[in-house]
Amino acid sequence: MFFNFIIVVILTAAGLVVAAMTIARLVGPRSFNPQKGEPYECGIPTRGQSWVQFRAGYYLFAILFLMFDIETVFLFPWAVVVAETGTYALISISFFLVILILGLAYAWRKGALEWK
């Protein structure tokens, strides 16, 4: 019974995605202007190659930002109901924070937070 429900949910999701893409393709405006395919940023046309490699520091900062952003997403609801949840919730969130602090300490030790 449960697996039937999961299959129905997956098929419904896939059907809605296909329907949305089909409707967008049929109804959406089309432009075959070659200038539409050019990269464009801040009103300034690009010069040279648009495919440039970025330093790994950008990716590390993005991952660290996501890590602490997710921390906030989990901590806020926990803080709202902390009085009602008891000791188990305190232990769970403490374990969660210890893992995040260890991740931050590892990134700090590896030099991921230094901008060179």
Task: Summarize, please.
By secondary structure, the protein is mainly α. It is built from 3 helices and 2 strands; from the N terminus they run H-E-E-H-H.
Can you tell me about this structure?
69% of the residues lie in helices and 3% in strands. The chain contains three helices and two strands. The radius of gyration is 23 Å and the shape is flat.
CA gyration radius, whole angstroms: 23 Å
Order of helices and strands: HEEHH
Shape: flat
Poorly predicted residue ranges: none
Biggest β-sheet: strands ordered side by side in the sheet: 1-2
Largest sheet: 2 strands, antiparallel
Assembly type of the chains comes to single chain
Q: What is this structure's SSE topology?
A:
Layout: H1 2-27, E1 40-41, E2 44-45, H2 56-85, H3 87-110
Helix pairs in contact: 2-3
Defining key terms:
single chain, 3% strand, 116 residues, mainly alpha, 3 helices, two-stranded antiparallel ribbon
